[in-house]
Amino acid sequence: MHLPRVVSRSLFSAVVIAILFALTPRAQAAGEVLDKPGSPKSRTERLVFTPAILRFGKVAVGRQKSQFVTITNSGNRETTLLEVTAEGRYFSSSGLILPLTLAGGESFTFTAVFAPQSSGDKSGSFSFVSDAPDVPNPSMLELTGSAPDADQLTADPAALNFGLVQVGTSAGQMATLSAPNNSVTIGSAISSSPEFVLSGMSFPFTIPAGGKAGFSVTFTPQASGGASATLSFMDVSGINPLIVEPLTGMGVISQGHSVNLSWNASTSQNVIGYNIYRADTSGGPYSKINYALDETLEYIDFSVSPGETYYYVTTAVDSDNQESGYSNQAQATLP
Question: Which CATH number is 47-147 given?
């Protein structure tokens, strides 16, 4: 049996077991209303969404793109989110388990997913209901996206996520541009952040009909915390983007320790990745620590402190964005 490993960087080691359960829903499906009979239908203006409007850009029909949304309680009082409703058939959420209580100033990040099944512009919203009695309407986050026609430029993967990268080091990923039906000439490419650098392409160049072209992006975080940017491939005029590739990652500062986790693959069908959760006390509550869905069977947690004990569980996510129950718990104590 493949055993998970928990290892720090000061020669400390321990062995733990993490076996994923078969996929059985542990919460409502993404975007489904969690029924709370008798709960107050109210909102609070203390809730702040980052970004204020979630724009997915262009996503090819039959593919999906995930982006992160942070909810912040900017007030001084505790607020509990009770319900969420997704409007728009192509939008859903992942990693948002309700009810969710946020103390004053506290934030929570979840994943929003856009998976168009037909071409054209799409719009929708997430509507949140909280226990705050002062405002009678749900708090809404607007969602937009579009699915280009089949002869447009497409990218595989549709977005690049670099996960955790230590500040001052670099991580690279590869991607491919495709022109399914018609030839496409790309005049230039623009990255919105110097932390993300494109390589492997010389401009201008043309991808013939049915052809492909590879490129790589390097992420070099300059500070700790989440980082996001876009890589826009422009037409020959330099004005119109042909396709926009979202880029995300998180810079971390190592404190001399890290926790290495690994787990056995889920035996369920159509599993596309895993989420990793961590708690400060045995049995939870757990908070998700991976910045995006982990497609491997390993994860390194750099955001740990000496002398602390952490408790980890994992879940599996299938192609319908259904998430399994928690695995058994793995414990790591740092020296």
Answer: 2.60.40.10
Among 3, 14, 5, CA closest to 334: 14
Cα 94 from Cα 71, distance rounded (Å): 14
In CATH, the number for domain 154-248 is 2.60.40.10
Question: Locate tokens 């928690």: which residue?
Answer: 326
**Cα–Cα distance, 149 to 180 (Å, whole number):** 10
Phi-psi region of 200 (alpha: psi -120 to 50; beta: other; left: phi over 0): left
Does the pLDDT value for residue 119 go beyond 60?
yes
Whether residue 171 contacts residue 247, with contact meaning beta carbons closer than 8 Å, is answered with: no
| pLDDT value at residue 26 | 43
CA distance 62 to 89: 14
For 210-247, b where at least 16 C-beta lie within 10 A, e where not — what string? eeebebebebbbeeeeebbbbbbbbbeeeeebbbbbbb
- How many CB atoms are closer than 10 A to CB 134? 10
pLDDT, one tens digit per residue, over 129-168 is: 888 766 555 788 999 998 876 557 889 888 888 877 888 7
Quote the CA–CA distance of 298 and 184 in Å, as a whole number.
Answer: 38
**pLDDT, greater one: 239 or 190:** 190
Q: How confident is the model at residue 245 (pLDDT cuts 50, 70, 90)?
A: very high
Closest CA to 128 of 115, 114, 140, 146: 140
**What is the per-residue DSSP string for 238-307?**
SSSEEEEEEEEEEEE---S--EEEE-PPP-STTEEEEEEEEESSTT---EE--SS-B-SSEEEE----TT
Across all residues in the chain, what is the average pLDDT? 80
> Regarding beta strands 205-207 and 184-186, do their DSSP bridges make them parallel or antiparallel, or are they unpaired?
antiparallel
Q: Could you tell me the CATH superfamily of domain 5-27+254-333?
A: Immunoglobulins (2.60.40.10)
Q: Domain limits of the chain?
A: 5-27+254-333, 47-147, 154-248
**pTM of the shown model:** 0.44
265-272: average pLDDT: 87
Residue listed under structure tokens 């702040």? 48
